[in-house]
Amino acid sequence: MMYRTRLCSAILLASAGFAALGGSTAEARVFITREQALQRTLGDHAEFRRESIFPTSEQVARARTLAGKGVEIREAPLTRYTAWTEGRLLGTAYLDTHLVRTLPQTVLVFVEPSGELRTIEILSFGEPEEYLPRDNWLRQFDGRNLDDGLAIGGKIHSMTGATLSAHAVTDAARRALAMHQILATGDPAGETEP
């Protein structure tokens, strides 16, 4: 009986967390965990380090300028994962949760050591599934840099009937690349977690 009470409490807390984002546990669908996405992209042999980064107001302001007009970057902690093998950096992944229309989406944006996008993985999506970005659409981000081409109407094609989803993913890519550039050139002011 105690187990059932704890389980119900955990479900209620999870529901409250999703409701704060504008969705509910019934509406959010998880497609892949971040651990699965990290391993699928960077391999089983990689060692991952999770970092909680606390960017300064100045870093956020510089990132907003780099990301471009209309791309929201909040003054809030961000989570990134660095992947290593035999002392060599394989890449960095940024966790980005945002609203598409009224419901949350979480993506993992992978950045190569060179600073270009490696790939984007959709971890969860709360909107109706017909608005979900598909893998073949996401592949157009692979190898892109933070430039004018990384935009809907630039080198990134929109999705018919899912314009908000297309913009949300594109903004997440621009946010991650902008923060990556800023954090790579200065003190990340972060705390590393094992």
Structure overview:
With 194 residues, this protein is of the alpha+beta class. It has two domains: 1-26; 31-193, no CATH class. Helices cover 34% and strands 26% of the residues. The protein is built from five helices and seven strands; from the N terminus they run αβαβαββββααβ. It has helices at 2-20, 34-42, 57-67, 135-138, 163-184; strands at residues 29-30, 47-53, 78-85, 88-99, 104-111, 117-125, 190-193. A seven-stranded antiparallel beta sheet has the order 1-6-5-4-3-2-7, with helices on both faces. A hairpin with a 4-residue loop joins strand 4 and strand 5 (104-111). The longest helix is centred in the last third of the chain and has 22 residues, at 163-184. It is globular. The termini are far apart. Residues 1-26 and 187-194 have low confidence and may be disordered.
Strand content: 25-35%
Estimated helix fraction? 25-40%
Terminal CA distance: 35 Å
Radius of gyration: 17 Å
SSE run: HEHEHEEEEHHE
Number of domains: 2
Q: In terms of structural class, how would the helical and strand content be classed? A: alpha+beta
Q: What summary fits the major beta sheet?
A: 7 strands, antiparallel
Separate helix tally: 5
Widest sheet: strand ordering: 1-6-5-4-3-2-7
**Envelope shape:** globular
Regions with pLDDT < 50 over 5+ consecutive residues? 1-26, 187-194
Write down the overall mean pLDDT. 84
DSSP, total strands:
7
Protein name: FMN-binding protein
Keywords: Electron transport, Flavoprotein, FMN, Phosphoprotein, Signal, Transport
GO biological process, one term: electron transport chain
Domain FMN-binding: 106-177
